[in-house]
Structure prediction request, 95 residues.
Amino acid sequence: MSPDAFDNRFYFVIPANSVKDVDFSEVLESELTLRYNSDSTKTFLCYESVSIPSSLTSIKSKEGPYTNEEVSNILNDSDWSIETENLASEEDILV
Prediction:
């Protein structure tokens, strides 16, 4: 059995106002790819390491670290769901 590609990935949920404190060279996201919860007060970050990136250690109100399975359960909660009826369809974007 091969190791899961996500075994070395860990996640923190952080307050949206803490994004400014993140060194994006330490995580797998960029400011443009962040996903926020439904009221835009939280986001999450992923990193690949056994040690917590230094910019994340300084964020006081973070939640985690979570495994891939744990963060998947969190993101499936209604607080993180995306209102698909308000999203533009691919056809609308291409027109």
